[in-house]
Amino acid sequence: MNIIKSLKPHRASTISAVSISALFAATVAFAQTDLPVIQVQADKVTAKMPPTFYGLMTEEINFAYEGGLYAELIRNRTFKSDSLPQPIKPDVYDPAKYYPAQFATNIAPRFWNSIGGAALMLDTNAPLNDALNVSLKVDAAEASKTSPAGVANGGYWGIPVQPKMTYKVSFFAKAAPGFTGPLTASLESADGKTVFASAKISGVTGEWKKFEATLKTKSVEPSKDNVFKLTTTEPGTIWLQQVSLFPPTFKNRPNGDRADISQLLTDAQPKFLRFPGGNYVEGNNFNERFNWKQMVGPVAQRPGHKSCWGYWSTDGFGLPEFLGWCQDIGMEPVLAVFAGYTLNRDHLTNGPALEPYVQEALEEIEYVTGDASTKWGAQRIKDGYPNPFPLRYVEIGNEDFFDRSGSYDGRFAQFYDAIKAKYPQLKIISTVGYEQPENLRVHSRMPDLVDEHYYRSEEEMEAQSFVYDTRDRSNPTKIFVGEWATRVGSPTPSMAGALGDAAWMCGMERNADIVLMHCYAPLFVNVSQVNGTNRSMQWASDLIGYDALNSYGSPAYYAQKLFSLHQGDEVLATKADNLPTYQWVQTGRRGGGQARTNEVKSVFYSATRDTKSGKIIVKIVNRADTAQDVKIDIAGVKSVAAKGTATVLKAAKRTETNTLKEPQRIVPVTEKLKDLGTSFTRSYPPCSITILELSAK
Ligand code: AHR
Asked: What is the whole-number distance in angstroms between the Cα of residue 686 and the centre of ligand 1?
């Protein structure tokens, strides 16, 4: 506890003989003589905190689902990672048609290895079905009792093995005449010295059949340098498809999610999920968009697609799985629909050619919200979700400010009109926010919300954290900050990132009358191999990191969680005086151009009330490398109790961070306070985010 009762003059730090190179070192402490004061006007509510204020944004990037949240442990389980690129231009592409993947022949599939001299080959002549139109031919002619032959898979940078756990194996197989089996499924260490569990599977015939088995481990040490093997001791030829291995999943959902990552999300209590992108909804080409109709129904009927982030997606984590995720964590879906524009800048203009995609979007909404009497509602029920989902927001595309053809206004209007006609209650989000130039925005319709994206340095986030304070209040269109992050630290943000984030979140909270929702991006990163070819990371600074075995929250995750858990439901009027500042020398783009010196505040704040408990919640961010005294005055209440709490997230240095090895290095700590009142001064530690909870009457 550190309450200072008397007002102390603040020691001024002076800048002398600052060299040009030091100036370019980005920040310089600045002189400050008067004590900063934050005044909270507790009887003046400036906004009701929107119930869906804090959410998550997600897409398949950085091995977010496959190799991440989706609990499947086998990499390239459908052998389609080697499919050949097949970009199709929109004018010749038929959205209702299925274009089967094509393959080079005579190659072994990626991420699978031969055991005991078996010859592995992709085979398009023995497909399981139209969707999974290739299989793995395993020629195990040399298999014998002393030298089993078959295949091994190393998963997503390892297969995790946990003690006393039951893993579910499943696969489709058939064999050439003469093969009598059986097959052995096993979990083994990569060096082959330890077999953790194995099961025998017999009955493989000349027809495709699905086989299932369980693998139970004993009291072993958790490890990830392991492989999954399917082998035989009998010579023969076998074909395999959809080879799958699942650990127990979060809430035991079949085809479900990793428990540890799901728990991190649950703990942060997000209220909505913006999915499926991001770039992922668009795809590089029209035939690589998020084609949701190919991502529903049994997973063995889903063809998969090449995602825009450079790797194959089996789409085992498809539309129903996004909804299951929402259900398990208690989030409301915010659905982004494909809007006729792709990342390679192919687009359709509004009119008849766009209409099939508008219908796709309407049907997708029906899938999410329809009842059993509707075609797509019935499909969702068949997929395991009897209850319609409470959809309120639909976003038309993603980042359509990149479309310089000018087609977005017309495309948006066509989707807007069709959706509003069928679902008048839905709020429609434009992907061009007010941070974008006027000429790129939608003008022909009034979007209910616009989606603004901010990926910035710590200094920029802090400098811009007051932008919403001066936004026009007469505009009926509200703001959805659908992607934002302070991009400092890789693969996950350092404390500097969390400080920039917290400053930015204070700004959004103060302005919750116009900022209705926001979500950090990207959410996930597999940190197993962040560089090189076949890397696990496509985008640095992600909220949550993991490998095959463990996961952790970055300091930015804990900042997010702190704000989410201490949201309150009323925003209180605040005013600040004498806030200290630092100088940020902003170089021109790419290091060129004119350098500009900005005076940026180094203390940030917001205040809310939780009407249920009556508590006033004051958030104070001190981004400086030194402690900072700040006086808080609470007006508009009779009294503030002497006792309260401060929950603090801090680091000795802004470069400090959490990692797989040190997942809890920077976590919030709660301390009890006494000597509080309607006016008190407290010293805020260097590089800190503080949540004060005050009991007021
Ligand atoms: O979050 C990563 C990417 O950033 C998103 O896919 C895209 O919308 C944005 O450009």
From this structure: 32
